Amino acid sequence: MVAARHLRAGLVLLDRLDGTNRSASTRTAVAPDHASRAQTLQARLLISLALAEAEQGRTGAGLLLVDQAAPLLPAADHGVLLQQKGLLMLRLGRVDDAIRLLDEAIPLLERAGDAVVLTPTLLNRALVHIDIGKVRVARQDLSRCTRLARRHGWDLLRAKAIHNGGLCDLINGDIPAALAAFELAAQLYAQLASGFLPILTVDRAKALLAAGLGAEAGRELEGAVEQFRRQGLTQDLAEAELRRAQAALATGDLAAAQACCRRAERGFRRRGNLTSAHLARLMRLRVDLAAGTGRAAGQAIRLAQSLAEHGLSHDAGIATLVGIRGFIRQRRTTHAERLLGTLPPPRRGAPLDLRLLWRVTRAELSLARGRHSAALVQLRAGLRLLQDYRSRFGSLDLQVGAGTLGVELAHAGLDIAVQTGSAALVFAWSERSRAQVFRIRPVRAPTDPATADALAELRQLRSLSREAELQGRRDPRTQSRCAALERRIIERDRHLPGTRYSTPVTTAGPVIRELGDGPQVIVSIVKHQGRLTAQLLGHGQIQSIPLGDSTVAEETQRRLLSDLDSLAGRHLPARLADAVRSSTRHHTDILTRELLMPWIDQISDDDLVIIPPVSLAAMPWALLPRLRGRPVTVAPSASTWLGGRPAKPRRPPGDDPPGGPTAVLVAGPGLAHAEREIDAISAIHPNSRAIRQDEATVQTVLQALNGVPVAHIAAHGHHHQENVLFSCLDLIDGPLMAYDVYGLNSPPTHVVLSACDVGQTVVSPGDEILGFTAALLYAGTRTVISSVARVPDETAADVMSAYHKQLAAGAEPAHALAFASLANPLASFVCFGAG
Q: In angstroms, what is the C-alpha Rg of the chain?
């Protein structure tokens, strides 16, 4: 709006000067070259005003201004006119017209030697090619644009070329590269023209959505929407609303998604941008489909034809698939099958959402025809595709987020498996939806000075914030700065490429063969439509046994953990303590009834490997009376248990010196029994290294942990609900975070965390578990002993001393923990991993 006012003022001033010259011409003739320059300047102002008008939603008025400018420009400047008109066509969504005009403009600008206009014209043509998915051609234009921008020192145009290069990476599915490009562009925009940052935010949100991070994308888009609204940038506002709709759909907020779609469609239509209005309409139809309706199937097919006519072949494919799924919902399977037969399979380089939707649609059609096996083939192919995509990410954060993209496929496969009644098939499909991130080899971030500085500052501020909390004070500024540093660290990690290596999902056969006739039974608990089922694998067979209600078990688990927290670290009045203990007994009785009674008597005295649904990942199994004294290992999946560890990190040469300690024992600050605890354990492990409270710095502990067989850490821990990679253990100079242990070259084989509740987890929308214990397992630690609830310091010391005595005598971790916990019936330690 401000630019438009200045441009109009310039035209008024030019008109006044021209009027003065005409008046003076009655006395003295005006020089022809002066008149020509005035006309050219007027034309340039009209062309610039045309774009300003278009940005405010008056694209028709902008086109009229361009037409007014045409006769005023000399032939040598005709390229300028064509490029601006092409840009207006782009904003109208008229892609073919935009490309034609820009193709005509570029040779004219080259002949005229007008680098000032040629450079942004190349940038705009690249953007058109990006919109229709022609990445190779777009990169050619961006390369030329960048060379010209460097030669002339036009840093803003170089920043825009980097920004658009990120969009090319995004189309190619290289999310880490796209996010790295967007970050570099953001740094340049912040220095040169901060007004472009909201536009970059919208494109960054596209990348986050492509990685399954819908909630984060939605939060970022809220700020961009507000800025576009204030600035009157109606095209960008409508685009941001469309992305907000996509984010709301990804998080299951269908009402918000519909509202955003309507606002986006209205905004595009007001601008005359029918192509983008069609895209908003397509999103509305996708929301309708997610709501369980297929009413607009025919409309989706017609919309696909319009999108194809505008050169948006990928979006046309999605619209067609949405229509086909609608017809399947209407039970018009013959018509749906005929339409699917006319749609070519997506090529290898097509966007992931199109390829996944293709698989889901074919599976639904097969299922509608009663071909269960054919449906499962499609769903398996879709999940393999997703796992390959996820393995391209080096960041755990992105790997976890991508899990949300496969939820529909995994749930559909499990539905079919349950319908077949095959226990082996149900087991196989439950494995396909469990702990998929564990199958990806972890990537260690390279040393980065900026990240190291951010981590150092974060440790210091987190320590100060913790001290303030203990004194009953809150420091909002420090907490805000901590959150900003955490975001910066995570964003840097998101630039890491993945290994593209992923271990296969196991099936029942290999697990049963591994168990043989040994004394172990795997109990895989499957949650499906609110009910739980136990699948018992062992002694050469698999069987399914119905359990209780998942909601009852989950709520009872929550209440039990709350009771345990109440009993720990407090001196409750005797009557209240008795009431809480009575409550814990009541809750363990309920959990025994819901989870154990249908099968526990069938397995004699076998050791148990329990694979719970993620919603029951924090269950204190040893507290259930029927499991007291029985070795229990809790594994994220049978695939990770069978592999012995989630991943096998390669140890750098020379990183494992001979003669090192067999155990590292760490006593953190502020624990009354920590010194006594590690003294007792030191006596059990003669070749151990003790790191006492004043020596327990983050750097010292991390160096000691690298490659050690056994690590025992007695330190206060804190669960970070918002970002579990920053869950931490308190050391003398600040927190040792889950983020730190994930970066170890060679993590400890066996870790014992004897204080607090760092065995707690957060469940991601893609059904992945997150937390300090999970981070150790992701990094490659084979077994972790940790508590899922708070544990009194003296109880922890007693249990751990007994545990290590058993361990030193040759007992396996699960056996050692079962024995050590017998004398402390409320100790909530769990053996996680391989046992």
A: 32
